[in-house]
Write the structure tokens for this entry.
Amino acid sequence: METIDMKKQHKALYTASADKPARVVVPPLPYLMIDGTGDPNTAPAFAEAMQVLYSLAYTMKFELKKTREIAYPVMAPEGLWWMEGKEFDVTAKDEWLWTLMILQPDVVTPELLVLAADEVERKKGLAAVRKARLEIFDEGLSAQVLFIGPYSEEGPAIAKLHEFIAAQGCALSGKHHEIYMSDTRRVPPEKWQTIIRQPMR
């Protein structure tokens, strides 16, 4: 059985300090993605998108283990967040645009996604399953910091990250990026760990 450890392969991208932001260079990487709009706390599309992502990710994982004897852990969910025509505002949730995504190993193919989508649609009837896609995301030079606590209290950590970028003589570039390292069903909000990443130029 071949084992792929994406977290180990990309260790610098999935570890961060809560004390000090750091520069990282993110190479082009393959993600399973799905887009949506609105407040993640209230928009039904957000919960369905997350269910679609996990269902597809695990279906593809089990298929590869069965047919090709390739094993790997499903990675943490991630989110890109932005607003149309303006700087991202953490308080204007109804105006948020988002892409939810999960990093995939290179062995995952569009053909495998189609097979997985057929199975997920048949078993769970999720209407949004056909909106998911595989895409190479090239983020490049970025800065990131670890935030510990509920998502509603991220503001100071985001401000610290932006100040770090300015101190590097750089400007914000691209979309606000969050990596959700904790299982919110099992971990209390005060212990949630989120890597906050911001591309820069």
Q: What stands out?
A: The beta strands are 2-3, 22-26, 29-37, 70-71, 78-82, 97-103, 133-137, 140-148, 176-180, 193-199.
